[in-house]
Amino acid sequence: MAILLSGQTWTSLLNYALFQAGWFVCVLGAAAGYPWLAAAAGLLLVLVHLALVRNAAHESLLLLASLLLGLLVDGVHIRTGVLVFPIGSFHPSLPPAWILVLWLQFAMSLHYSLGWLNGRYFLGALLGSVSGALAYWAGVRFGAAQFSDDNIFRCLLQIGASWGLVMVILLWVAARTSVRDSTILYRLKFLTKSS
Predict the structure, then answer these.
(1) b/e map of 146-168 (b: 16 or more CB within 10 Å)?
(2) In angstroms, rounded to a whole number, what is the distance separating the alpha carbons of residues 143 and 136?
(3) What is the pLDDT of residue 89?
(4) N or C: which end of the chain has fewer CB within 10 A?
(5) Does 43 fall in a domain?
């Protein structure tokens, strides 16, 4: 018996797959010593996402806001001695390209697979704090980055606190860049037929 999924469900699943594939491409590529190739492959997935969305202009504003936040937040983590990126940076005090692509990839999920967080700022802050710290910890475990402080708890606490705030900001931006009149579907024919 075939399971029929709505177009919105398919869109969320595809979006989640793009985001997860991007995370692994960027982190594992950087860990393997190919940070620029990882960034290029991750950026290609972002471009696929932008080709599939119905309003690329609004989506691009959200991605740009996330990119700027990434420069600021990870720049602070580098300058305060929490994170070290061994290779792939333009400058030692700037985040590498592959992690900035991760910021783009995360933002591309906010209208789609993470759209259920819309307007739920407290829950977003809580999930951002926990999952943000865990994602960075996983990246460190894979070897894509390093905690520069021997006190891993302090590093995770700072990253978690920053991601709690980041989620509130990004959810706010996502709410202002969403297109209220349109359904959140990717532009694929089979999605519009099944919805």
Answers:
(1) ebeeeeeeebbebbbebbbebbe
(2) 11
(3) 72
(4) N
(5) yes
